[in-house]
Amino acid sequence: MTPPTPWPSALPLTTPRLHLEPLRVEHAPEAVETFGDTRLHTWIGGAPRTLTELEARYGRQVEGHSPDGTQGWLNWMSRRTSDGRLIGTVQATLERPTDDHIEASLAWVVGVEYQGRGYGREGALTMARWLREQGWTS
Asked: DSSP 3-state assignment of 45?
C-alpha cells in the first residue's frame, strides 16, 4: 500500500492590509491578548485560554495534521500591515474524500477590538483564493 501524500503546509500570504503568517508557537503571547476578551467567547464558545494553554494548542496545530492523519490543518495568524498588530486567525481543515482530491473547510476569528472592518472577510478570501490556486476546493 502506498503511503498517503503528505498534507500541504501554510505559506505566508499578503493582502494590502494583512500579512497572513503561518502559525508558530511563538504567536501565543500576542494571541493571549488578542483573543483574551471574554466578549469574543460569547460567540466562539469556551473561555479565553492562558498562555500555557495556547502554547500547547499551537504546538499541536503546527504539526499540520490530526494525530491520526485523516485531516490536514493550515493555520495562519492575521497581522495588520499598518502597525504589525496581531488581529486574528484564518484556518483551513483539509480532508481527502478521494486520494486525488482535497476539500477545505474554512474558519476565521477576529479579535473584538478589530471586528467590523472587513479583516475576517479579507483574510478568508485570501486563504480561499490560495487554496483554489493549489487546486483544492472550499
From this structure: coil
Residues ≥6 apart with Cβ < 8 Å to 88 = 34, 77, 78, 108, 109, 110, 111, 114, 119, 120, 123
Residue 85 to residues 11, 73, 75, 130, 137, Cα–Cα distance (Å): 19, 24, 17, 23, 30
Largest CA distance in the chain: 50
β-partners of residue 72 are 65, 94
What does pTM read for this prediction? 0.91
Q: Which band of pLDDT confidence, cut at 50, 70 and 90, is reported for residue 74?
A: very high
Query: In the beta sheet, which residues pair with residue 78?
Result: 20, 88
Partnered with residue 74 across adjacent β-strands are 92
In this structure, are strands 86-98 and 101-110 parallel, antiparallel, or unpaired? antiparallel
